[in-house]
């Protein structure tokens, strides 16, 4: 069973600011509750082929994985993918202007669990949905609280 979780939020900050902050791996531990570290495997800046190693906690387990950037349209779309472990994952961020100076950000996680993970896919999807909603809310709090750039 495939997992496909899409969440979104509107943040009262300009698209370029939201995209720059959310796409910067150094900021991931500040707005993703479950991510404890992000480390460049390739040299910055972020571009096609860049690889970033993350360490996270999810469903009581510590996970170490490396994402590779497979699409990057600065200020518009970022797609990263990993093929490691029992649950290969693709994460997509999109940003679009909304209202007068706000940004709609979407966060999509999708993957095809293998092995035993296939049987826990519905539970994982529900947990991911809750975690993604909380992470986007945290991002909104961080960015809405910032002064004008």
Structure description:
- This protein is 25% helix and 42% strand.
- With 149 residues, the protein is α+β, with helices and mostly antiparallel strands.
- It has one domain: Alpha-D-Glucose-1,6-Bisphosphate, Chain A, domain 4.
- A seven-stranded antiparallel sheet has the order 1-7-6-5-4-3-2.
- The longest helix is centred in the last third of the chain and has 24 residues, at 121-144.
- The N and C termini lie far apart (44 Å).
Q: Low-confidence parts, pLDDT < 50 over ≥5 residues? A: none
Structural class: alpha+beta
Query: How many domains comprise the coordinates?
Result: 1
What share of residues are in beta strands?
35-45%
CATH topology: Alpha-D-Glucose-1,6-Bisphosphate, Chain A, domain 4
Largest sheet: 7 strands, antiparallel
- The CATH homologous superfamily is called START domain
- Overall average pLDDT: 89
State the helicity in percent bands: 10-25%
Radius of gyration: 15 Å
Listing every helix as H and every strand as E from the N terminus to the C terminus, the arrangement reads EHHEEEEEEH
Q: What's the tally of helices?
A: 3
Overall morphology = globular
- Beta strand count: 7
Going across the biggest sheet, name each strand in turn: 1-7-6-5-4-3-2
CATH domain class = Alpha Beta
**Distance linking N and C termini:** 44 Å
In CATH, the architecture is: 2-Layer Sandwich
Short description:
The chain has 149 residues and is an alpha+beta fold. The protein has three helices and seven strands.
List descriptors:
single chain; alpha+beta; Alpha-D-Glucose-1,6-Bisphosphate, Chain A, domain 4; 7-stranded antiparallel beta sheet; 25% helix
